[in-house]
């Protein structure tokens, strides 16, 4: 069963574009994927036209668990717009 779950996660990561996904979200995902750490998953949720929530997840495996657990290591709210062909990303996360 654990292998099936890991295969599903790998399959979801390989999907290049989903139906109804905005071009801005696709560009943001590509940008964040290039900057992520090894063994890290980036999840992007489009909240509105230019606002996104980004969660960085890291796989952990406890000695007592059968399956890998994913923990959010970083969470951000971003305002993203495209100017002159480049992405302008503003972190709006309250600290």
How is the secondary structure organized here?
Elements: H1 2-14, H2 23-35, E1 40-46, E2 51-60, E3 69-83, E4 86-91
Please describe what this structure looks like.
With 95 residues, the chain is an alpha+beta fold. It has one domain (2-91). 27% of the residues lie in helices and 40% in strands. It contains two helices and four strands. It has helices at residues 2-14, 23-35; strands at 40-46, 51-60, 69-83, 86-91. The protein has a four-stranded antiparallel beta sheet, with helices on one face. Strand 1 (40-46) and strand 2 (51-60) form a beta hairpin. It is elongated.
Low-confidence stretches are 1-5
The helix fraction, in percent, is: 25-40%
SSE string, helices as H and strands as E: HHEEEE
Mean pLDDT: 80
Specify the overall morphology.
elongated
End-to-end separation = 39 Å
Could you give the count of β-strands? 4
Briefly say what this structure is.
This protein has 95 residues and is an alpha+beta fold. It is 27% helix and 40% strand.
Keyword list:
single chain, about 100 residues, alpha+beta, four-stranded antiparallel beta sheet, disordered N terminus
């Amino acid at each position: 069963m654990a292998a099936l779950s890991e295969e599903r996660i790998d399959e979801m990561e390989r999907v290049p574009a989903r139906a109804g996904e905005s071009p801005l979200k696709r560009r943001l995902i590509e940008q964040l994927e290039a900057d992520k750490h090894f063994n890290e998953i980036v999840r992007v949720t489009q909240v509105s036209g230019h606002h996104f929530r980004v969660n960085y997840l890291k796989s952990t495996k406890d000695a007592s668990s059968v399956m890998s657990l994913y923990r959010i290591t970083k969470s951000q709210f971003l305002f993203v717009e495209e100017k002159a062909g480049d992405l302008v990303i503003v972190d709006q996360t309250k600290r």
